[in-house]
Design brief:
Structural class: alpha/beta
Shape: globular
Helix content: 10-25%
Low-confidence stretches: none
Distance between the termini: 24 Å
Order of helices and strands: EEEEHEHEHHE
Largest sheet: 7 strands, mixed
Oligomer: single chain
Number of strands: 7
């Protein structure tokens, strides 16, 4: 059985055997979509979603995550890679509408859920500072994320955060 995979906000990173989607049709086989509008895919269709440097371009990140949840099957793997808020370029790009830190997606976890805000869930499987300006800081930052966010990221900027999520659907 073939797994259905979505490369969301693919840009020019066209993945073979994936559905590639972006706001700009960068290749013939790219599905055109806008992050703030209903995605042109069926409910419970994808087994995996990969979004590298695309979610921060959404003007309505909560809606975007709700759409990702809708189009994914129960237990689908979702990988999100975004720039960290301490990186100067993260908000210097006028097309970035959301900043991210280590804790940004925690409210989507069932244990932290705020029913009055979100009617969907993701389980965080893994989150890490995946790229730092100074590579020697990566291990320490990941070992001490709260201390790193609060005291160190303004001195030693973090470039990227990678979140690995699992879709959780209620019965």
């Amino acid at each position: 059985m073939t797994k259905e995979k979505l490369n969301l906000g693919c840009g020019i990173d066209i993945k073979k055997n994936w559905t590639n989607a972006d706001k700009v049709k960068t290749a013939k086989n790219v599905v055109k979509l806008e992050m703030e509008k209903k995605f042109p895919f069926k409910n419970n269709y994808f087994d995996e979603v990969y979004a590298r440097h695309s979610i921060e371009h959404s003007k309505d990140v909560i809606f975007t995550f709700k759409e990702i949840h809708r189009i994914c099957k129960q237990g689908a793997k979702v990988t999100i890679i975004v720039p960290h808020c301490s990186l100067v370029g993260a908000m210097a790009d006028l097309n970035h509408f959301q900043e991210f830190n280590f804790y940004t997606l925690d409210k989507f976890e069932p244990k932290n859920k705020r029913e009055y805000l979100y009617d969907f869930n993701f389980k965080i499987i893994k989150k890490e500072f995946s790229k730092t300006v100074f590579p020697f800081t990566k291990w320490f930052f990941n070992s001490h994320p709260h201390f790193s966010e609060k005291f160190l990221s303004s001195i030693f900027p973090i470039e990227e955060i990678t979140y690995e999520l699992k879709v959780v659907k209620s019965d």
